[in-house]
Specification:
Elements (H helix, E strand, L loop, with lengths): L2 H13 L2 H8 L3 H15 L4 E4 L2 E4 L1 H24 L7 E8 L3 H15 L3 E8 L1 H10 L4 E4 L8 E15 L12 E4 L3 H10 L8 E3 L2 H11 L2 E5 H10 L3 E2 L6 E10 L4 H15 L8 H6 L10
Parallel strand pairs: 3-4, 3-5, 7-8, 7-9
Antiparallel strand pairs: 1-2, 5-11, 6-9, 6-10, 6-11
Helix pairs in contact: 1-2, 1-3, 1-4, 2-3, 5-10
Length: 302
């Protein structure tokens, strides 16, 4: 069985639809159907039952699932290891949700370069569903995400229960007017809680889909908004921002997601680093970390 057939099989399982799998793979539905027929011919078993609700696995398909998943992950691991840069022993690929990369991903990179200089690192920043797809397919070893969707082939580990707090540039902190408020889209859970707590702020003058953008706007132009405590801590200490008293805090947890069948020996240095920086351990700033930065490939943060 080749990798293309395995990826197609897993995409149908994930989406429960030949059509949605075709859209994800950027091919036609006819191509997906042809690949499934080829795979079923190779195995001599029917793998899917198609009905009005989509595509469901047969018992033979259920038995194939862990093997197909392992095949794709082993291939991606082999492909990455073949391309290990000189001076490194292994490669780790880590993706981070856009709203979480600052400062967690940077602190982790510094920690890794100081504590595990033999590991070459590739990073990317993206949307949670895309990152989880890549973990499931073996393209990423770890994804860092807020409230990731549970999937059967993935394990989820809580890193930190970050808090969102209301801060302001005003000299006398108080509940803002809509025209002074910057609403940051921290996801549907936050939106539901925020709307209950502050219905009068539904028509904020500025709405930002990215936490760092909203934060930098408030710092530069003035205003009030909800931001992650760890990110605004330095501004609070300097007095540039102030907490608005008697306002609720909202939880914004960060999770590490990795494949259930992943090599724990390979992942453990990265997970140890994530746990350390998530709980406030300062990354060691060494010359080795600075010189090793050149080995950090593919960092696509905004």
């Amino acid at each position: 069985m080749d990798i293309t057939l395995a990826r197609t099989f897993l995409s149908i399982v994930e989406t429960q639809s030949f059509l949605r799998a075709a859209e994800r793979l950027h091919v036609t539905q006819t191509t997906v159907s042809a690949r499934v027929r080829t795979l079923e011919s190779l195995l001599g078993r029917v793998l899917f039952v198609r009905n009005k609700r989509g595509a469901a696995l047969t018992p033979a398909g259920e038995r194939l699932l862990p093997h197909a998943s392992m095949l794709v992950q082993v291939w991606e691991r082999a492909r990455q290891q073949v391309a290990v840069p000189g001076g490194s022993r292994t490669v780790l690929s880590v993706g981070c949700e856009i709203s979480l990369w600052d400062p967690l991903l940077l602190q982790w990179l510094l920690w890794m370069r100081a504590s595990a200089p033999h590991v070459a690192i590739r990073t990317e920043v993206g949307f949670p569903s895309d990152l989880l797809d890549k973990v499931a397919d073996g393209v990423l070893d770890i994804a860092i995400a807020y409230a990731p969707q549970q999937r059967p082939r993935l394990r989820v580990e809580l890193l930190i229960e970050e808090k969102l707090i209301m801060v302001t540039t005003a000299a006398k902190p108080q509940l803002p007017r809509p025209e002074d408020y910057v609403y940051v889209d921290w996801g549907p859970d936050f939106a539901a809680q925020h709307d209950l707590a502050f219905p009068e702020l539904a028509n904020a003058a500025v709405r930002a889909g990215l936490g760092p953008l909203g934060r930098e706007y408030v710092v530069a132009a003035g205003g009030t908004g909800y931001f992650r405590l760890d990110v605004v801590r330095a501004h609070l200490a300097s007095g540039r921002l102030r907490r608005v008293p008697d306002t609720p805090e909202f939880l914004y947890p960060a999770y590490a997601v990795y494949a259930a069948g992943a090599d724990r020996q390979t992942l453990e240095p990265a997970l140890s680093g994530l746990r350390a920086v998530a709980h406030g351990a300062a990354p060691a700033a060494t010359s080795g970390a600075a010189s090793g930065a050149a080995r950090i490939a593919g960092h696509n943060s905004p």
